[in-house]
Structures are given as C-alpha cells and as structure tokens.
Write a structure and sequence with these properties.
single chain, alpha+beta, five-stranded mixed beta sheet, 2 helices
C-alpha cells in the first residue's frame, strides 16, 4: 500500500459510532428476546384419570402458572349405560348438572389449582360406561397440556365386580 492510499482512506463509520450503536442495541436485543419467551409461556394444565376399586374413579386436576384470578372449568361427561355421580373438592362451584354431565368452576389460588374429582358409576348388570373429564381456562392465560382424560367401567354380571380402564 502506498502512502497516498493510506492518507486518502477514510473510515466509513467511526469507532465512536460503532460503540454507540452497540451500547443501544444490547438493551433492545434483551427486551426483544424476553418478549417472545414471555408470550409463549402459558398456564400448564393436566387432568389424569385413575381407576379405583368398585364403582369409583378419580380425576386429578392440576393447573400451574395461570394468570392471577384465572378460573378453571371442569366438565365431566357420562356416556354409556347407567348413571353417575360426582364429588368435587371444597371450593369448586357446581355451575351446571344434567343426567349426563357436571360442570364445575374452580378459582386458581396464586395461579395454581389442584384437586381430585371422584366419579361414582351406577351400572346395571353387564353395563359399560365412560366418564370423560375436560378442563379449560374461562379467563386469563389459555391452558396447555393434557386437558382431557377418560375412565371406563364395566360391571361383570350382577356382581359387585367392576372392571376399569383408563382410556387414551
């Protein structure tokens, strides 16, 4: 390189301008990176069906990371033979009941909820029935996760022997 080339070259951008741009871009990148992570996070929900002996089955409900004040709806739907009854935890409000379904509303406490709903199957001789439980958020952050579970019971003959299976 000649002396002429060295003196005629001027930097396109000064070091000071690069430093200033870098200083302003770091907070902007940090904020931009934080927003998608926050927006993608949501309430986690799960409901799990469990067999119990005899005519009973349990549905364990767990919700975490919900917005404060979120209410959860729990719907239990009966299909098949016979009828069923439901026992819900204290504090859960029965919003609607028919011969084939129960709907409860339960508030979250500090963004969380847990409880067990007990389904009581009333089956005739050789009867088969399934209870499906589904949870959803009525307000606040939508739930994500395993939001539905089903338990099927079959009565063998006229005995008190009930066969049970968790569906799905």
């Amino acid at each position: 390189m000649t002396d002429y080339e060295k003196t005629e070259r001027q930097p396109l951008v000064s070091r000071r301008a690069v430093t200033r741009a870098a200083a302003w871009s770091v907070p902007a990148i940090a904020v931009a990176a934080a927003v998608p992570a926050y927006a993608a996070s949501g309430a986690a929900g799960s409901i799990t069906g469990r067999c119990r002996s005899g005519v009973l089955a349990d549905f364990d409900v767990v919700v975490t990371q919900a917005d404060l004040g979120t209410s959860i709806q729990i719907v239990l739907q009966h299909s098949g033979d016979g009828s069923f009854g439901v026992t819900a935890p204290n504090g859960w409000v029965l919003a609607n009941a028919t011969a084939s379904s129960y709907t409860y509303i339960a508030p979250t406490l500090n963004g969380a909820l847990s409880g067990t709903v007990v389904a009581n199957y009333n089956l005739g001789q050789n009867g088969v029935a399934t209870v499906t439980a589904t949870i959803s958020a009525l307000s606040g952050t939508p739930l994500a996760g395993d939001l539905s579970a089903a338990v099927s019971k079959r009565r063998n003959g006229n005995s008190d022997n009930y066969m049970c299976s968790v569906v799905g």
